[in-house]
Write a structure and sequence with these properties.
A five-stranded mixed beta sheet has the order 3-2-1-4-5. The relative contact order is 0.21. The radius of gyration is 16 Å and the shape is globular. The protein has one domain: 2-Layer Sandwich (Nucleotidyltransferase, domain 5), CATH 3.30.420.10. With 199 residues, the chain is an alpha/beta fold. α3 crosses α5 and α3 packs antiparallel against α6. β1 and β2 form a beta hairpin. The chain has six helices and five strands, in the order βββαβαβαααα. InterPro entries: RNaseH-like_sf, RNaseH_sf. One of its GO terms (molecular function) is nucleic acid binding.
């Protein structure tokens, strides 16, 4: 792809070893494509087995991303998470971000709270301190986009991330609220010079 070409898609990625959510929004038509990349492993997997699993997940995720230049918003790791396999998840995160960056896509990250704030930005939430929980996020997005199958929280999270990217590029497909404007502005977007090179 040309490094200076304008992005044609906004892509959201919610990366996980068990199920990575992927959402792709066409900036020209508003059409949405959703996907889930699942892999299975064992608690006592050897290093070579884990490496194979990461490669399968990476290939599946990359297959959903358009060849044309895209803005890709990846959910940033939750550093306070106590879930297992954090080391392996970090490996998938960096390999995915690195591969897509090397292909010329514009890659950035959004923190979980930013994504949740955007997703439920048009509805009140139970706790304004903690922000909306996963169930509130899925319910909010499903209600606003009933034509999409958003029952899986990984897919719903990825869709919210893609919507952030689409809004940043001036092609939003959802309603505008102060919370969504604030969430979009909270992302550290790469800058682009006159030659179209990101930095």
């Amino acid at each position: 792809m040309s490094a200076g070409s304008a992005p044609r898609y906004a892509v959201g990625l919610d990366l996980s070893l068990t199920g990575s959510g992927v959402a792709v929004i066409s900036l020209h038509t508003g059409q949405v494509a959703l996907g889930l990349v699942e892999t299975k492993g064992t608690a006592k997997a050897r290093l070579d087995q884990t490496l194979d699993r990461l490669q399968v997940a990476l290939a599946g995720i990359a297959a959903y991303v358009p060849a044309e230049r895209s803005v890709i918003v990846i959910e940033a790791p939750s550093l306070g998470s106590q879930n297992g396999k954090s080391h392996e998840r970090a490996g998938l995160w960096w390999r995915t971000a690195g591969l897509l960056h090397s292909r010329g896509h514009i890659v950035t990250q959004a923190y979980p709270r930013t994504r949740a704030k955007y997703a439920a930005g048009h509805l009140p939430v139970k706790s304004t301190r903690k922000g909306p929980d996963k169930n509130e996020v899925v319910a909010a997005l499903a209600a606003e986009h009933p034509h999409l199958h958003l029952s899986n929280d990984n897919i719903a999270d990825a869709f919210a991330l893609a919507c952030i990217g689409a809004r940043h590029l001036g092609a939003p497909i959802d309603s505008s609220t102060p919370q969504r404007v604030q969430a979009t502005a909270a992302v550290r977007w790469p800058t682009t010079d006159q030659e179209g090179t990101t930095r």
